[in-house]
Amino acid sequence: MPCTTVLVGKKASNDHSTMIARTDDGHFDVKKVIVVDPAKQPKTYKSVLSHVTVKLPDNPMRYTAAPSVDPKKGIWAATGINEAHVGMTATETITSNPRVLAADPYVEYRKGKGSRKEVVGGIGEEDIVVLVLPYIHSAREGVLRLGSLLETYGTYEPNGIAFNDENEVWWLESIGGHHWMARKVPDECVVVNPNQFGMDSFDLEDAFGAQKENLCSKDLKEFIADNDLDCNQEGLFNPRDIFGSHSDMDHVYNTPRAWIMGRYLCPASYTWDGPSADFTPESDFLPWSLVPDRKVAVEDVKYLLSLHYQGTDYDPYTNRDTGKRGMYRSIGINRTGVTSICQIRSNVPDEIKGV
To answer: HSE (CB half, 13 Å, CA atoms) of 50?
Structure first.
């Protein structure tokens, strides 16, 4: 979905909670909020769009979800919190590039016709929450389960997925058809992610060693080297440059959203406007994570996800004729199906930890 994601580490929030938040922006599919009990969860899952069949583990947990009201195109559960107080939001559609897709193509469904057999596709946004959230007891477990599913079944689209528990926030980005990488969001940071491959740094040594804050598919090093994917200068490792995009469309649709959120979170730490700006709406090197100038509350997250460039020349609703109105894609738009914030709190009774 063409969405916007905000992730808040526990030391960046005003109440030491973790938050994962996202606008689910599509063609305005009507959503509902439900509780899914274990008795209603299947033993085998079959995707409507890709026809992939996945055998599910025993002992699923109760969880909340925000699926589509009309199930004809699948469940699209979007977001929720399970009874182990683990939150999940899926997915943020991100970007890729031709080099990656040539090396590891998407696993796309192909309908059978005549003598041509049906080709089953991989997993996608339609499926991911249902396949993962009922079975995980921590944010890290969510990354590992989803990573295993991507390696086994593949995917037909590029996605970013967030998980949180009371201590950690993790962000996973898929790479091509079967690869992935994930980072723990630094506790003191806020992540802002539009529809673009986001991560701008990654510790491969940690991912293939202690795995404290970085995780990835088992053959990621070989995948990069064998296919000459690394376009970074020597000594640098920027995943966005390797797996993502820097397109003209990004400069209209994606980077401006990261810019306006950064401008709100860090007005004093960086210069956002004028000829000497550190970052502009079309900067390719906007940071994936930021230490906010002040602690972030729930209402700040909601405000971020409603932004339409207020206070700038780009606001589509301004009465001033700036010549720049509506230049860039706003965050708050009229085709948002659901806006969700999964907040997991500490120092409260278990019954109300997850909101």
So the answer is: 23
Asked whether residue 317 is assigned to any structural domain, the reply reads no
Of the candidates 3, 189, 266, 342, the residue annotated as catalytic is 3
CA dist 88 and 69 (Å) reads 20
- Write the pLDDT tens digit of every residue in 184-194: 999 999 999 99
Q: Is 3 a catalytic residue?
A: yes
pLDDT tens track for 48-75: 999 999 999 999 999 999 999 999 999 9
121 is in which domain, residue-wise? 4-246+286-294+334-352
Using omega within 30 degrees of 0 as the cis cutoff, is the peptide bond preceding 312 cis? no
pTM of the model: 0.97
What are the angstrom distances between the C-alpha of 163 and each of 90, 183, 191, 233, 249? 9, 11, 13, 32, 28
Q: Per 3-state DSSP, what percentage of the chain is helix, strand, and coil (rounded to 5)? A: 20, 25, 55
